[in-house]
Design goal:
The protein is mainly α. Helix content is about 60%, strand content about 10%. The chain folds into 3 domains: about 100 residues, Winged helix-like DNA-binding domain superfamily/Winged helix DNA-binding domain (Arc Repressor Mutant, subunit A, Orthogonal Bundle), CATH 1.10.10; about 40 residues, Arc Repressor Mutant, subunit A, CATH 1.10.10; about 45 residues. The chain contains 10 helices and 3 strands. Strand 2 and strand 3 form a beta hairpin. The N and C termini lie far apart (about 80 Å).
Length: about 200
């Protein structure tokens, strides 16, 4: 099949037009790699190579666009690509391509998640769930959790700001439930309530 024209449609985006009226959306990188030009005759094998190269090149650009917006884990990025209509093989190709070039760094991403949620006052349980939800594997997850600071200050501040009457059992239960949802263990909550109470209680 003969190429009739190669037209630019956007920065780094091109369209390869053929004499039979068909068109293939592609990128400057793909056109350059395959050394395409107007008038060139492509065999069926070369045409299939162009389709695959274009598909992957466009997918890489989309994946890079997502990563430029925020850090992601491999699983998060793959899910995003699949949601945008990419097939499984293309999404997997993008993940491997990016990983090979160290453009996905799950170790630093996991550490950033731990810092973010611990700074917001969440407990270890909630932070661990966030890492699991993002698809961080067990080994990296455990390493990231080891970096979580042991700081009771935020827990104590949360209770001090909300508990007006330590004898009000309903109030204590509500605050305890809220802290449990934030990822604190019952032992951590009970200890903090005891510190707040100032005298012995039956927590």
């Amino acid at each position: 099949m003969r190429i009739s024209a190669i037209r630019q449609t956007a920065p780094d985006r091109l369209k390869v037009c053929f004499e039979d009226g068909t068109e293939i959306k592609t990128t400057l990188a793909a056109v350059t790699d395959l050394r395409l030009c107007s008038g060139r005759e492509l065999s069926e094998e070369e045409l299939e190579e162009l389709r695959l190269c274009s598909l992957r090149s466009l997918a890489r650009e989309k994946a890079l666009e997502y990563l430029s917006q925020r850090q992601m884990s491999r699983r998060e990025l793959k899910t995003k690509l699949l949601q945008k209509g990419m097939d499984e093989d293309t999404a997997e190709y993008c993940i491997h391509w990016l990983s090979d070039r160290q453009l996905i760094d799950e170790e630093s991403y996991a550490a950033a998640v731990v810092r973010h949620y611990s700074a917001k006052g969440y407990g270890a349980g909630r932070v661990r769930r966030e890492l699991q939800r993002r698809g961080i594997d067990r080994e990296l997850l455990d390493e990231a959790m080891e970096q979580m600071p042991e700081d009771t200050g935020k827990l104590d501040s949360f209770i001090a700001a909300r508990l007006t009457d330590p004898e009000d059992r309903d109030q204590v239960r509500k605050i305890s439930a809220a802290l449990f949802r934030r990822g604190y263990s019952w032992e951590e909550i009970r200890s903090a309530l005891r510190r707040f109470q100032a005298e012995d209680g039956d927590w």
